[in-house]
Specification:
This protein is α+β, with helices and mostly antiparallel strands. The chain is built from 29 helices and 30 strands. Strand 2 and strand 3 form a beta hairpin.
């Protein structure tokens, strides 16, 4: 009797429907698809609900049916993060990842062994988080949906305490047992006889193997029951086989009692797990530290006065009072007061930033001296801190391309080790002399190698050593731990990587391309030079020019007014104001006829402009705009205005050159100005007078000429070029850091952060390569030694535990990397 076909319900968002006839057409097309038992299309929601047999009608066939009648299925996706339970090694991570990836509706899934989390992108109509939890459970593990901002391994303290207790219980029994075994091995000390010795070994091993090690055995059983194999399977098999020799010796069926060895395997294993958990906790501390930065309460002003409320109750528009020494509760705008704010948590900049009315402030930064009143502008998940946490979570939840190698190896590793252990056992039984001869050269120098062992005892010893020495965990942890540390270090310095691939790609970049306005320059013009003439002093020149420019909307005019105000000059009133389009302004100021603008406009007013022609040419050669000022028909002087360079622009280009990178600048400005600025900062290659779409072509040309290209821009006008570049680097402005076109976001406007990002990517990838090398070489060397019977199972287990700890500890050494020039 055949079973009924399995039916699934799927919701598809449909685009292109405009009327009931459209909906009916789509519905008929879906109903006519083989494997579909029911289809209902809702025109109001633009969604189709389909009941189908996934073995006959998969998602692709449903999409095709909709396309054939002139409509399309919209790919709506969402992200979910899950905390995982029961995952103990890289094989577990790979198993969960495969189960999620193969689940209907899942676009992609990434499981991070180091954080104990899964990041899943899924089609909103194809599945949901509840079903994804079931997928993980069916694979033999546990999962819990996490809200945004939940720290990695939120239950880490409880897990760490449990791991500590298990380790102490194991060693409380194993350490005396080990001393007893050492006395027997070295001095043949058995005061109560051999029979009592074997009873003691066997009975003492029971609480260690079956109580302290029950979580390891349970994990192995769950993996085996679901058709998989993980690191715990290897440890469990090794310890159980070793323990079984105890009862076998007591029954007279075996020569050597390894029950004590079984206890020591478990004790070493639990110790390695505990130390590894501590090291992994250090690697994952970046998000926890970020979350701890935020204020817990806010003092807001209400009609009844000031009230302290929980941060969750603050609403956009609320006025908050922040006293000296207090954290700013949430992102906002200063409406009253002046102070200095320590923004190092956001930007990595140690110097405090002055704040006055109109300035933006970032939540969780520290108000230092003055009292401020701040209007809340962003709350909850929209705040700067929440965006930073989200970006760090995204980066830590992704994989670098090189990890594909490790994943392929670890996916096949445990089954291969099981086969190797079985083959080792059979080889030692079938050809013990040949196996001993193969390792005879080294065996003579290893005191734990006993050539008098029977073939069966030698076979069991070698097979157990193979089982416990093989370690996929080191390979599985090599990349994510380094990535976690690197992305966390970046966040602490205002360098936010959106995904792991950017870290790997940035290290190989050959050219860094910069936009000019707002990237190399500050993005707004400022007065750079004031050159008086004809007996006019600087103050009078600026006062009279600012009087006319005060009503001008031109950016150059506003720069003149800002300079006069910065010098605290009294700007007089004007009359008879005239704006001459494209040339300047003129009018009466303090009884004088004043002209401010181009050389031609000043000449038309009767001024002799040739006297300052050389000075004007020099200023324009420096990339500045020369504004002529004439008073009563006489040339009064020049005011030079330019979009000034960022303070560290020259330093940043020097740092990039020392890193072996070429630099380029793309701008829509005229070539003379562009080349002048490039010469000032030391840029190698200039492309001027280029439109936004032309920037994309230039990036493509540089990619063809040099290789990988990074593009640095403001993330708005430069979005196409940022996307085309191999790595898009966006300059953040204040709290606006969520720039979708970029791979890397620099919270500060400082260009030196580009060099910091490059150094961090190189240092992080260097650690990844080191970890992969040591994890690989360890297994390549250790497994053959175990096969030849040259590794005692105890030494094998200790080495295995050490390998994982070493990889994680090496990743933490990344914190010592020098990231500044």
């Amino acid at each position: 009797m055949s079973s009924a076909p399995q039916q699934e319900k799927l919701t598809l968002p449909i685009t292109g429907m405009h009327c009931a006839a459209c909906a009916l057409r789509v519905e008929h097309a879906l109903k006519g698809t083989p494997g579909v038992s029911e289809a209902v299309v809702n025109l109001a929601t633009h969604r189709a609900t389909v009941v189908h047999d996934p073995a006959v009608a998969d998602l692709d066939s449903l999409k095709q049916a909709v396309r054939l009648v002139g409509y399309a299925v919209l790919e709506e996706t969402a992200h979910a993060r899950f905390g995982l339970r029961g995952m103990t090694c890289a094989a577990c991570a790979n198993r969960i990842e495969r189960a999620l990836t193969r689940s209907p509706g899942v676009v992609k899934a990434a499981v991070n062994l180091a954080t104990g989390m899964a990041d899943v992108e899924y089609r909103t109509g194809g599945t949901d988080p509840v079903e994804l939890v079931r997928v993980v459970e069916r694979a033999g593990y546990g999962a819990k949906l996490l809200e945004a901002g939940t720290p990695p391994r939120a239950d880490e303290e409880a897990e760490l305490g449990l791991a500590r207790r298990r380790m102490f219980i194991a060693w409380a029994v194993t350490l005396p047992l080990a001393l007893w075994m050492a006395a027997e091995l070295l001095f043949h000390f058995m005061p109560f006889g051999k029979h009592f010795h074997h009873y003691l070994m066997t009975i003492a091993a029971v609480p260690v193997v079956f109580y302290a090690g029950h979580s390891t055995l349970g994990s192995a059983w769950r993996a085996a029951r679901h058709g998989g194999a993980n690191m715990d399977v290897l440890i469990s098999l090794g310890s159980l086989v070793a323990f079984a020799t105890g009862p076998a010796v007591l029954l007279g069926a075996f020569q050597q009692n390894y029950a004590g060895v079984a206890a020591m395997i478990i004790a070493f294993h639990l110790t390695g797990r505990y130390i590894e958990a501590i090291a992994r906790g250090r690697a994952s501390q970046a998000i926890r530290k970020l979350l701890q930065l935020g204020a817990k309460t806010a003092r807001i002003i209400t009609p009844e006065g000031e009230h302290e409320v929980p941060l969750a109750e603050v609403q956009v528009g609320d006025i908050m009072v922040i006293r000296p020494g207090e954290k700013i509760p949430t992102d906002g705008e200063v409406v009253d007061g002046t102070s200095s704010v320590d923004e190092s948590m956001a930007t990595g900049e140690s110097l405090p930033v002055d704040k006055r009315p109109g300035d933006e402030v970032i939540g969780a930064t520290l108000n230092q001296f003055g009292s401020l009143r701040v209007k809340a502008t962003r709350i909850g998940q929209d705040t700067f801190l929440a965006q930073v946490v989200k970006l760090v979570e995204e980066a830590q939840g992704t994989k670098v391309p090189i990890q594909e190698f490790a994943d392929k190896v670890t996916g096949k590793f445990v089954p291969a080790v099981l086969v190797t252990a079985a083959a080792t056992f059979l080889l030692w039984l079938a050809a013990p002399a040949a196996m001993r001869a193969a390792g005879a050269g080294l065996a003579a120098h290893l005191p734990w190698v006993d050539p008098a062992l029977s073939p069966l005892t030698g076979a069991i010893s070698a097979a157990v050593a193979v089982l416990v020495i093989a370690c996929p965990c080191a390979l599985g942890l090599a990349t994510p731990t380094a990535l976690m540390v690197g992305s966390g270090m970046g966040a602490e310095r205002g360098v936010l990587f959106r995904h792991g691939a950017a870290i790997q790609t940035l290290r190989d970049v050959k050219v860094v391309v910069f936009d000019k306005t707002g990237t190399i320059t500050k993005g707004h013009p400022a007065v750079t030079d004031v050159v008086p003439a004809g007996g006019t002093d600087e103050g009078r020149l600026l006062r009279l020019a600012a009087a006319l420019e005060a009503v001008s909307e031109h950016p150059l005019g506003r720069a003149v007014v800002e300079e006069a105000r910065a010098r605290k000059l009294a700007v007089p009133a004007h009359t008879a104001f005239i704006s001459v389009t494209g040339r300047g302004v003129q009018g009466a100021v303090e009884g004088h006829q004043v002209v401010v603008g181009s050389r031609r406009l000043a000449a038309e007013a009767g001024a002799d402009v040739d006297g300052l022609a050389a000075t004007a040419a020099r200023l324009e050669g420096e990339g500045k705009t020369a504004i002529y000022v004439a008073i009563d028909g006489q040339l009064a002087g020049l005011i030079a205005v330019a979009d000034t360079l960022k303070a560290d622009a020259v330093q940043a280009m020097g740092e990039l050159h020392r890193l072996g990178l070429r630099t380029a600048m793309l701008t829509g400005d005229n070539r003379r100005t562009a080349e002048a600025i490039a010469a000032q900062v030391g840029i190698d290659h200039v492309v001027a007078e280029v439109l936004p779409d032309g920037k994309v072509d230039e990036v493509k040309r540089l990619q063809g000429q040099y290789g990988l290209v990074a593009m640095v821009g403001d993330g708005i006008n430069d979005a196409p070029a940022l996307t085309q570049a191999n790595v898009g680097i966006a300059i953040g402005t204040g709290t606006d850091i969520a720039i979708e076109a970029s791979d890397v976001t620099l919270v500060r406007g400082d260009l030196s952060a580009v060099a910091t990002a490059v150094r961090l990517s190189r240092a992080t990838f260097r650690k990844i390569l080191q970890n992969l090398f040591w994890a690989s070489i360890y297994n390549l060397v250790a497994i053959p030694l175990a096969i030849l019977g040259l590794l005692h199972p105890l030494i094998a287990e200790a080495a295995m535990a050490t390998s994982s700890v070493t990889v994680v500890a090496n990743a933490n050494l990344l914190r010592r990397a020098r990231l500044t020039g």
